[in-house]
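Hey L., structure's done. Input below.
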Amino acid sequence: KTQKNKATEGHLGLLKAKLSKLRRELTEAGSLGKKGSIGGAGERGFEVSKSGDTRVGLIGFPSVGKSTLLTKLTGTFSLAAGYEFTTLTAIPGTMHYRGAKIQVLDLPGIIEGAKDGKGRGRQVLAAALTCNVILIVLDALKPMTHKLIIEKELHGFGIRLNQTPPDIIFKRKDKGPINFQAMVPQSILTYEIVYSICREYKLMSCDIFCRCDATIDQLIDVIEGNRRYIPCIYVLNKIDQLTIEELDIIDQMPHHVPISAAHEWNLEELLESIWEYTKMIRIYTKPKGQIPDYGAPVVLHDQTPSVEDLCNKLHKQLIVQFKYAWVWGSSVKHQPQKCGKEHILRDEDVVQIIKKI
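Output:
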């Protein structure tokens, strides 16, 4: 076993790059079946059309209460029984919260080795890639090692939970050397480590600008270019069978919400957490000479949503006819205020769009 110290960082980085490259090649070889369908060995993936303003996926081991939670949240019936693997396909449901339509996807239970295709694991993880937020449902009575196993399976499939993309700019070039520039002091990355990783990926000419103190894994993720950064909430189910002391221990876990799906305990906090993690805001439209339409808000996702994003959400041709907008709410100093398409909106703003004549 290679010791981990400053002298062996380059060697470990090279090994990590080789492992990541081989894992991607194995996934690509296994994911294309006989008919080219995603899922492996000619099996078909879960065909669930995306609907609503956002999509939330329920992931967990068998018999942790995913189907019960889907039924309580959305009213959609999903068979729940006393045996494992009751759910064999993806079951969608829709819930309405704060004027937004949220699609909840009940995915079949995964097992250890899912990222390698065991128990239709690749199809479950591929469906998780399409979600805006992942709910990892855990049985509060089972050991917390289950959480680490699920995290490992999602990490191996290219899903990064509760992480932000590293501030690294990577550009391939046709000619020239490997150009590595660190904008901030690096504690791990050196030119020799970056050079060896690039050579492993057969990159002879590229630009890498590192604007954060990055790790080797983050550099490999940027070079691979197929990672998904998804917010995640750990839902600890069946807390009705725990003591107060055990709940105090669970409360120390970050990004968690304790619930009891069967007794409908703490579901309101779970809904608030989903709303917070999806980073959605509501914008109300106001026709000229009428009161705002508070019944059907336009839901935007971006962290800095502008008036232009609102126009594109309403109609693609609206921005061509856009002249200016009147905005009421917390994003403006005056009520109303005349704004251009670059103006950044906030939650529950009221917008009236004026078109060119």
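The CA atoms of residues 89 and 167 lie 37 Å apart. The first helix runs from residue 9 to 31.

-- N.
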